[in-house]
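Hello, quick one for you while I still have it in my head. No rush at all, and the record is pasted right below.
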Amino acid sequence: MANLSGLNTGVANPNPNKSFEVLPAPSDSVSSLSFSPKANYLVATSWDNQVRCWEILPGSSQPKASISHDFPVLCSTWKDDGTTVFSGGCDKLVKMWPLMSGGQPTQVAAHDAPIKEMAWIQQMNLLVTGSWDKTLRYWDTRQAQPVHTQQLPERCYALTVLYPLMVVGTADRHLIIYNLQSPQTEFKRITSPLKYQTRCLAAFPDQQGFLVGSIEGRVGVHHLDDSQQSKNFTFKCHREGNEIYSVNSLNFHPVHHTFATAGSDGAFNFWDKDSKQRLKAMARCPYPIPCSTFNNDGSIFAYAVCYDWSKGAENHNPATAKTYIYLHSPLESEVKGKPRIGTGGRK
């Protein structure tokens, strides 16, 4: 009778945290979410080849515009002035979309394999892209050729930039750290402190280190300075009994410098690395959370709830598969760090 149990209870509630739903939802799973650095415009890229933008207003979301790629879109980023969106993915090219002026997208970058990650570097006025072709490429969007191509040891899986710090995570658990004041030389290369594949990275707000998340329900907190290595630690998360899920997203709060994790268990949590505490565990959604992000002032946490293929094609039913994008308004108690109780004890 186990296989009939779901019929009695009805469909699982996709929104147990009573978050605000962004509509209309994409027709396939969401691969990235990014807020404008200047205003509450949210962009989602998805496996239905679309890049969509909504204006987020108090109590409502207004679809603003969308563009198409020829293949699934995997990543997106905004220009620092909030005028323009870049997107890339399985068609191996980057489109630059002057969204706010209503302009048409143009191709500004290309790789030899799908583009997994990208970031706009305001201080260099360049776009950096990371691909499964095992390169990073830097682009001046007015030129057809990259201004620099950096070889990576393996396929790019994750990227974080907070100038001058950039960290790239590749296959085989390589983490390559760059000082963007001299981007053509590796500052340091390490093996991930986590024993399984890297899924996501987030630079510390003070640029003194980074977080790394893996497919094995674990996060590493890593400092760059050799004298600070004793402060490094890892912790388990996104686990349920013997079930271990991927950590898919790491986002620092722009004001309080605490951080969120989101995972394939359908949960998102808020943490304080300095006091080593979990500040808030949110209710688990019935589907994975593949991506998430804060808006520019940290008053909105956006997250997608949809199938992420972590259990293969046999667990995907296109007839019933749904995609949701939700907005959570964090309470201060959820995202503001607090000193550890009894600080004389274990650090």
